[in-house]
Specification:
Largest sheet: 4 strands, mixed
CATH architecture of the largest domain: Up-down Bundle
Pfam families: Acyl-CoA_dh_1, Acyl-CoA_dh_M, Acyl-CoA_dh_N
Protein name: Acyl-CoA dehydrogenase family protein
Keywords: FAD, Flavoprotein, Oxidoreductase
Cofactor: FAD
Number of strands: 10
Helix content: 55-70%
CATH class of the largest domain: Mainly Alpha
Mean pLDDT: 92
GO molecular function, one term: acyl-CoA dehydrogenase activity
Structural class: alpha+beta
Order of helices and strands: HHHHHHEEEEEEEEHEEHHHH
Number of domains: 3
CATH topology of the largest domain: Butyryl-CoA Dehydrogenase, subunit A, domain 3
């Protein structure tokens, strides 16, 4: 009988092959900083975008790890489709889902998740984008800015979080905003990462009740539940990159002549490779545990997903950096796999909640669980 872990390994191998043979060539033809629509369409053609909405968090982690190993651009394109469209899938009206999700699944419609602002990055509750009520019209006008938005300004629609009233997490509403709404403009940002990131400016952009995702005033819940679903798979993205760096290092140190032998014969090198392997495997196990907890509806999901994202992204940074060190100057040459990974691996420690935010979540949840345990014991 084939055990579950073997099935997962088979799935990873199949996706790696597809990524190398079908997706990598399209990624190489893409223009940095813009949406690679042929690549997104191929993800749809292969049925990979469909899996964003029809499978659990564990499968999403397996998928993202395999894609990241062979083609980080394809992984990121898939993840951004999921992040932008999942709120529509989970909270949208039947009309919203029917209008937008078929195109997302097919790779013809590009989605984006617009939460961060110039003054509200990690502190998502500090949103300043305002939704001003339209007198007598039953709708709102969005005024303000969003910043660091992946796929902006090239997406076809945005899941936008704006303040309709209250302070902090209260009074935030999620809206589905098509890119062609009057008053919505954007500019690309020149970032280290090759995928598109930009700003959005809302100059009295009209939205109505039919554009609300979920309930008015409950948008912060939409944002946090979406992030809880995708944070474990951010860790899986990091694991995929780390595994690619580890495999490249094993190959290089096994054939590189140095000091009268092979690099792998040096104890200092062998120990570093062993440490890399331990961190990759530990990260993978944490990611899988968090995804399984999410799929099971466990009470400790926020803590587990924060742990997975924190450890996996920090571990991947260490592994890729060590791989560069063991390869030497050639790893920093433009076009080398490790040069590419070195640029890609940095951002996941910041987006979808920086490492410091994850530590705060972990500590908060630990104390909450301790208090709950004491309460039940009493």
């Amino acid at each position: 009988m084939v055990v579950a872990e073997e099935v997962c390994a088979m799935a990873r191998s199949e996706v790696r092959t597809l990524a190398a043979e079908r997706l990598r060539p399209l990624a190489d033809k893409g223009e940095p900083g813009t949406v690679n629509r042929p690549l997104v369409a191929e993800l749809g053609q292969l049925g990979l975008l469909e899996r964003l909405f029809t499978t659990g968090a564990r499968d999403l982690c397996e998928l993202r790890e395999a894609l990241a190993y062979a083609c980080t651009e394809a992984e990121t394109a898939l993840a951004l489709q999921g992040l932008g469209a999942y709120p529509v899938h989970a909270y949208g009206s039947p009309a919203q889902r029917e209008r937008w999700l078929p195109g997302v699944r097919a790779g013809h419609t590009v989605a984006a998740f617009a939460l961060s602002e110039p003054g509200a990055g990690s502190d998502a509750a500090a949103l300043a984008l305002r939704a001003h009520p339209e007198q007598g019209a039953g709708g709102w006008r969005l005024t303000g800015e969003k910043c660091w938005i992946s796929n902006a300004p090239h997406a076809d629609f945005y899941t936008v979080f704006a303040r309709t009233g209250g302070v902090g997490a209260r009074g935030v509403t999620a809206f589905l905003v098509p890119a062609d709404r009057p008053g919505l403009t954007g500019e690309p940002l020149d970032m280290l990462s090759p995928h598109p990131i930009g700003t959005l400016t809302f100059d009295s952009v009209p939205v109505g009740p039919d554009d609300v995702l979920g309930d008015a005033g409950r948008g912060f819940r939409v944002a946090m539940e979406t992030l809880d679903r995708f944070r474990p798979s951010v860790g899986a993205f990091a694991v995929g990159m780390a595994q690619a760096a580890l495999d490249a290092t094993l190959d290089w140190t096994a054939r590189r002549d140095a000091f009268g032998g092979k690099l792998r014969d040096l104890q200092a090198v062998a120990h570093q490779v062993a440490e890399m392997s331990v961190r990759v495997e530990a990260a993978r196990l944490l990611v899988h545990a968090a995804a399984d907890a999410y799929d099971a509806g466990a009470a400790d999901v926020p803590r587990r997903v924060a742990m997975a994202k924190l450890f996996a992204t920090e571990a991947a940074q260490h592994v890729v950096d060590t791989a560069v060190q063991l390869h030497g100057a050639r790893a920093l040459r433009r076009g080398h796999l490790l040069e590419h990974l070195y640029r890609e691996v940095r951002a996941p420690r910041i987006y979808e909640g920086a490492s410091e935010v994850q530590r705060g979540i972990i500590a908060r949840e630990l104390y909450r669980e301790r208090e709950a345990s004491r309460g039940s014991a009493g």
